[in-house]
Amino acid sequence: MNILTINYIIFRVFKNQFMVNKKLSIIIPCFNEEDNIDKTYKRLSGILQKAVKDYEIIFIENGSIDSSFNILKKIVKNDSKIVVIKFSRNFGPYGAFAAGLQYATGDAVSFLDCDLQDPPELIPQMLEKWQEGFDVVYGIRSRRKGSFLRRAFVNLYYRIFKKLSYVNIPLDAGDFSVIDRKVVDVINSMPEHKRYLGGLRAWAGFKQIGIEYTRDKRLYGETKFSMLAYFRFAFENIFSFSYKPLDLISYLAIIVVSLLLVGIVVYFIIFLSYPDIPKGFMTLILAILFLGAIQLLCLSIISQYLANIFEEVKGRPHYIVDDVLKKSAK
Q1: Rounded distance, CA 328 to CA 137, Å?
Q2: Helix (H, G, I), strand (E, B) or coil at 256
Q3: Which of 3, 219, 277, 288 is a good FRET partner for 306, with 20 to 30 A between their CA atoms?
Q4: Which residues contact 189 (CB under 8 A, 6 or more apart)?
């Protein structure tokens, strides 16, 4: 064993010793994940016990209709580091992350899906970057396993979102991340309901870095996001972090008015040049259909922003907690 190897081992030992003095909170949303909860808990606990001295795992029971809550109750009875927050109903991913951030007490907070598509083995590496001074360490899904159609849609979504957003959002960066307490406090201070974590993380700023990894396919259970749900989720995020759809309305108005002016001039010239040309209704019908389609498109864009405003001004809570389970530490 040469001196470089010895120095590297000493460096890692002292670095790990420094890391264990911090508390980490892991937030795991659960909705009908009875096949994955126990596997996620065991796999994650084994990693955290070696990576950090103090940690908590916060399971958000998001209105499941299977046996997820019963499984969580058994886990929390035997582990004082587990917190279970049970919602009164399903409040979607936005509500789950909002609750997790509010209840988290760690110096850093990590987000992990219960389906184990994001590898918890990457958390120690994220913590190393956090200890180096990065306030946000996010995972970059450089490769994805699973359905080709779903992978293609997600890749396209991230690129369209980055192009449209007024915030510089990293490509292929999902919720899987480790964020510092000061960033958590900033996000908790935001009152909005459409709490897309990737967007809020980027908007908050601070020192950020990404780590590439391969996202696995779901091994157990079925995904809770259909393609229609993905489309809805994508549109909600775009309309929450972009003004460009509204700009599109202005551009369309300019284009339509320009075409109208050109059409009037062309029609007037044709009328003067060929006064006996047959008059038909096809041009009129096409013009009406074209303008009607433009108007419907503009109204649909405006309606999306109105829906967001309507949701925000009601001021309802992001979630409702039915029960909180935690074993008292001895």
Answers
A1: 31
A2: helix
A3: 288
A4: none
Strands across the sheet containing 173-180: 208-215, 136-144, 173-180, 108-111, 23-30, 54-61, 82-87, 321-326
Decide: helix, strand or coil at residue 315.
coil
Query: CA dist 148 to 169, 176, 204, Å?
Result: 24, 21, 33
With a threshold of 0.85, does the pTM exceed it? no
Q: What is the pLDDT along the chain (330 residues), one digit of tens a residue?
A: 444 334 333 334 444 444 447 788 889 888 888 888 888 888 888 888 777 888 888 898 888 888 888 888 888 888 888 888 889 888 888 888 888 888 888 888 888 888 778 888 888 888 888 888 888 888 887 776 666 677 777 777 778 777 777 778 777 777 788 888 888 888 888 888 777 777 788 888 888 888 888 777 766 666 666 667 667 777 777 777 777 787 777 777 777 777 777 776 777 776 677 666 655 555 666 677 777 777 777 787 788 788 778 877 887 788 888 888 887 655
User: Rounded to an integer, what distance in angstroms lies between the CA atom of residue 177 and that of residue 162?
Assistant: 19
Coil/strand/helix, residue 83: strand
What tokens does 71 get?
């499984």
